[in-house]
Amino acid sequence: GAVVSQHPSRVICKSGTSVKIECRSLDFQATTMFWYRQFPKQSLMLMATSNEGSKATYEQGVEKDKFLINHASLTLSTLTVTSAHPEDSSFYICSARDSASSGNTIYFGEGSWLTVV
Amino acid sequence: AQSVTQLDSQVPVFEEAPVELRCNYSSSVSVYLFWYVQYPNQGLQLLLKYLSGSTLVKGINGFEAEFNKSQTSFHLRKPSVHISDTAEYFCAVSGTGRRALTFGSGTRLQVQP
After folding, report:
1. Above 70 in pLDDT, residue B44?
2. Between residues 45 and 104 of chain A, which touch chain B (CB distance below 8 Å)?
3. Integer Cα distance of B86 and B94 in angstroms
4. What pLDDT is stored for residue B1 in this prediction?
5. Which residues pair with B33 in a beta bridge?
6. Inter-chain touch A46–B51, beta carbons under 8 Å
7. CA–CA distance, B11 with A117 (Å, rounded to integer)
């Protein structure tokens, strides 16, 4: 079946550096992908909607200059956390919409654990 | 805009007992409804979804949910749980147009032997 792959699954970076997380749809094309973050023992909060070939749409309160999203192809969206700080440590999950499937199925990646030290 | 309320943060239950995890939503537009399961340190797995049609939806692992429009609810049920069902369960809603999901706060299902 359709799979969404995230990489890396875990990353540790130093405070002040930038880290990139990739989200790939493996056997379908996704014009729209979504990025969520989840703090420990909390729910998932939508950060932004990634649109292929255009600028991402950010949710209120999410800094677009800090969380750079690029959706350069129909199978890849990237989230770059710039100048990371310890408070950015979180679980980041992407999802992709298979618009070709009946019901516009949404698939989630396995998530990426970011730890900023 | 939509919102989701999961009233129970934790539900302890004995193995082979039935369980119901509650979910209520609010929305000014038509919605799609979902239940996801998250095992420790993992991503989300879709259990089931309601898009249209029959209000009783059957999913994986023996779970089912019933969409009740008048009560704006989408409760998840399983007639007999297993230890392996211990996980965090999230109810989610999306508009039929924009497909970003709004998640509830989650319910921790703890199945005890």
Report:
1. yes
2. 45-46, 49, 93, 95, 97, 103-104
3. 26
4. 78
5. B50, B93
6. no
7. 35
User: Which of B8, B20, B24 lies closest to B85 in space, CA to CA?
Assistant: B20
Q: Which of A87, A88, A108 is nearest to A97 (CA)?
A: A108
Looking at the predicted structure, is the pLDDT value of residue A107 above 90? no
Which residues partner with A57 through β-bridges?
Answer: A49
- Model confidence at B98, pLDDT cuts 50, 70, 90, reads low
- pLDDT (average), residues B73-99: 92
Which residues from chain B sit within 8 angstroms of residue A36, using beta carbons? Answer: 101, 103
| Interval B8-28 mean pLDDT | 95
Segment B14-42 shows an average pLDDT of: 92
pLDDT at A2: 58
How far is A23 from B26, CA to CA, in rounded Å?
30
B101, A32: Cβ pair inside 8 Å? Answer: no
CA dihedral B70, B76, B80, B81 (to 10 degrees): -160
Chain A residues in contact with B46 (beta carbon < 8 A): 107-108
